[in-house]
Structure formats: C-alpha cells, structure tokens
C-alpha cells in the first residue's frame, strides 16, 4: 500500500513537472487530466451519486485519456448527525472536487481548505433552523464531521483532508463566544442590516470596501460582550481574550448568516470573505537564504552563479502549492525584504528575471508558473476532460524588489506605486492554457507499474 501511495504521488508530480505539451489559447480554463488509481482506494468521480456507485473494476490496460477512472464507495454514515446533506449536495460535490485526492495539498490554501471550511459553516448554519443552536456538542460534532468526511471521500476527496486543512470536531463545536442560541442572536443584532450588507457581496470590491466584513465584525463585537466582562486594557492577556472572543463570535455570526440563504448563496458569501483573507499573506514556507546571500551578496558576484542559486531556491518554493496572483506578490515582496535585510544590495529579481509566477507550482517547463485568480475559484470535473482549473500563464509580471508594498491594503490604494498587477479576472477573460494530449505515455507506464505492484 505504501509503495502504491508513493507511485500515486510520483505520478502526480510527473503530471505537473515533467513538461506538459500545452498550447496557449483563448479558453476559459486550464484543463489538467488526472488519471490516478490505487488498488485499494479508487478516486471517485464527483458527479456520481454514492447511491448508484458502480462496482470497482481494475483496468488491465492503459485508460483512455478522455475517460478518467470513476468509482465511488457508499459512505458509511453514523446516523447520529442532523445535517441536511441533501440540501447541501451541490456544495459538497464542489468541495470533493476542490479537494480531489492527491491534488488537495497543492490547492490547499487557496481552493480546497477555503471551500471545505465554507461547507462546514453552511452545514452548521443550515442545521440551526431545527436545533436553534449554532454550535454542536462534542458527540454530535464528532459524528457529523465523520459523516462529512465519509461523503467527501466517497466523491473523490483526499483521505487526508482533515489533516491537510487542520480540521477536527472543535471546528463545529462551541467556542468562547457567549451567544450561540439563534433566538438570542436575533434579539441582540440588527439582523436585517447584517443580511443586507452581505447578500449582494461583490467579490471584486469587498476586500477593499469591506461592507460585509465590517458588518460581521460589528455583530461579533456585540455578541462577544453580551455576557462577558472583558474591558479594553493594555494588559496583554485581556487583549488576547478580547481578540479570541471576537474571532469566535465572527464564526458564530457566519454560521447564522449562512442559515439565512440557500446553501449555494451562503457558500459564495463565505468564499468571497475567505479570499480577502488568503490574499493578504503568503502561504509559502521559505527555506534559509544563506546560499543566496553567499552567491549574490556582492554587486560584483558572478551573475551566472547567483542566478543559478536563485533559481534553485525558487524551485524549492515551487514544490509547495499553487498561489494566487496577489499571494505571489506578497511572497515576492517578503523574499525581497529578507534578501535586502541580508545585505544583498543589487536587485537580483531583475538580474535573474524573476517573475511573480515563479513563486507558484509549475505546470509547464516553458510557460513555468501558473497563477490562480485572486477571486474565489474552484476546480472543475468533466467526464471527458477530467479535472480542470483556471490559471494564468501569460502574466509575466516582474517580482518587485521593494520594501514599500504593504499587503492587500496597497492594492486598494489607487495612488500607490506598484508593479503592474495581474488582473483578478484576467485568466477568466482570455488568458488561460488548455493543456491537452499531455501524458498518454505516462498514463500507460504508470498503469503498467501499478499492475506489477498488485
């Protein structure tokens, strides 16, 4: 089993890194065919209902590139969870696709986990119409999370989803927020104003005007201090408690808000809010920069040696995950700052032609990095094309060598001097890559190796 799992991961990496023969065109999407199987756990099609799952069949020859393996098991539900899974069927299928098997770690921070988190918020919020509570007890939370996990896995999601997204039953349970009863919330808040602030949320401007975010924060503060005697103070523990209270109450407000919309609309609102958060930072882990400092520390350093070291360093970052265009800007700025603090005075980003897309996972040797849109995005599944996603291979925006960039707030300041930013919707308009005819030989080779392992 371990050798098979290693093969699955290796096959996935081959798909990403071994040179797709992709051709640029004006398509809406970047289609990545993923044909991965294992002996004991077949990845499932998100469009096949568990109730009509076909029996597992082990192929004896290479699969057709146009027909990915489709198998799903029947989820083993506890029978002790009151979630309305039928009403949330659409968003659960979206979650399963966004967190598809071995792809999940590479889309974790920007696609998979935001969608998974949103689906849990929606499920708890929708269930509150019957329970009148916006939090579950430990027993109920354990059963419900297990059921959600079973359903998602049966539809193709990663078996390690909880680990990847750092989710456990406490994500569904009571928190430090003192108000979790629906009736008390509705008597404490101006609920009509809260709904109005978020129902028509605009994903292109919410991160700047923060209409919905401000309304949620204000509501959270009201709930946080309804029964708690926490006062403003310079004392750190009190400030910490206040911050935790407000954060926990924001989660409660989001659950309540999700109960006032249909599941898809609620999911959309939460995903827009999450996109504002994830685009404020860089999700990458940066290794030590000593090697770059050594090779690039002097203006008279050997340019070839410096750039080779820089490229080697970037290749380590590129093995981590896909990032959005704004995340890439944050990552480039962060690395530039680290290098300058290490007394590297020359602009080695310019010297070595470092672009923003060099900070994202690589999908093509020639086109290199693939930047996801800063707007909320999902993976898609098509029975003929497989798994697909939107990304931009054309925005060759130079990585900034500056300490001036201050995060997402700067992108809302029209007077700020910034490098030309990839437009949030550029890849959705015309700049995508349609990757096809990619891995027929790899598919054949991997399927043959898998048969030998069986």
Automatic annotation (TrEMBL):
Superkingdom, natural source: Eukaryota
One Pfam family, short name: At1g61900
Residues annotated as domain At1g61900-like C-terminal: 280-353
Signal peptide: 1-22
Keywords, ordered alphabetically: Signal
Chain coiled-coil ranges: none
InterPro entries xrefs: At1g61900-like, At1g61900_C
Entries under PANTHER family matching the protein: GPI-ANCHORED PROTEIN (PTHR33831), SPARK DOMAIN-CONTAINING PROTEIN (PTHR33831:SF8)
Name of the molecule in the record: At1g61900-like C-terminal domain-containing protein
């Amino acid at each position: 089993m371990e050798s098979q799992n290693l093969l699955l991961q290796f096959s996935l990496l081959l798909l990403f890194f071994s040179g797709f023969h992709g051709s640029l065109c004006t398509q809406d999407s970047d289609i990545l065919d993923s044909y991965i199987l294992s002996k004991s756990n077949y990845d499932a099609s998100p469009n096949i209902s568990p109730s009509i799952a076909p029996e597992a069949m082990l192929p004896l020859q290479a699969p057709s590139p146009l027909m990915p393996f489709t198998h799903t098991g029947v989820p083993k539900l506890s029978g002790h969870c009151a979630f309305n899974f039928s009403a949330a069927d659409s968003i659960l299928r979206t979650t399963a696709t966004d967190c598809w098997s071995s792809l999940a770690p590479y889309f974790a921070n920007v696609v998979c986990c935001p969608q998974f988190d949103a689906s849990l918020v929606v499920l708890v919020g929708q269930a509150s119409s019957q329970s009148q509570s916006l939090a579950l007890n430990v027993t109920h939370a354990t059963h419900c999370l297990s059921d959600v996990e079973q359903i998602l896995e049966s539809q193709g999601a990663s078996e390690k989803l909880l680990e990847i997204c750092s989710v456990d039953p406490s994500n569904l349970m009571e928190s430090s927020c003192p108000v979790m009863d629906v009736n008390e919330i509705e008597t404490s808040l101006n609920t009509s104003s809260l709904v109005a602030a978020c129902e028509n949320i605009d994903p292109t401007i919410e991160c700047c005007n923060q209409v919905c975010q401000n309304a949620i924060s204000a509501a959270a503060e009201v709930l946080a201090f309804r029964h708690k005697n926490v006062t403003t103070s310079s004392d750190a523990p009190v400030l910490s408690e206040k911050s935790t209270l407000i954060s926990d109450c924001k989660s409660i407000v989001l659950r309540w808000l999700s109960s006032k919309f249909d599941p898809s609309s609620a999911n959309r609102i939460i995903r827009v809010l999450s996109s504002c958060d994830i685009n404020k930072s860089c999700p990458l882990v940066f290794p030590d920069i000593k090697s770059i400092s050594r090779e690039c520390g002097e203006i008279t350093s050997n340019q070839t040696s410096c750039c080779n070291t820089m490229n080697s360093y970037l290749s380590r970052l590129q093995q981590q995950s896909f990032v959005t265009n704004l995340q890439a800007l944050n990552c480039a700025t962060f690395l530039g700052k680290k290098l300058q603090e290490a007394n590297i005075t020359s602009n080695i980003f310019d010297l070595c032609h470092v672009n923003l897309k060099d900070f994202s996972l690589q999908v093509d040797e020639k086109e290199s990095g693939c930047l996801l849109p800063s707007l909320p995005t999902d993976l898609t599944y098509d029975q003929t094309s497989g798994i697909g996603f939107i990304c931009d291979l054309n925005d060759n925006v130079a990585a900034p060598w500056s300490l001036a960039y201050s995060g997402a707030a700067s992108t809302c300041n029209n007077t700020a001097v910034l490098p030309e930013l990839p437009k949030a919707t550029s890849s959705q308009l015309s700049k995508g890559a349609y990757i096809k005819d990619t891995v027929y030989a790899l598919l054949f080779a991997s399927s043959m190796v898998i048969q030998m392992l069986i």
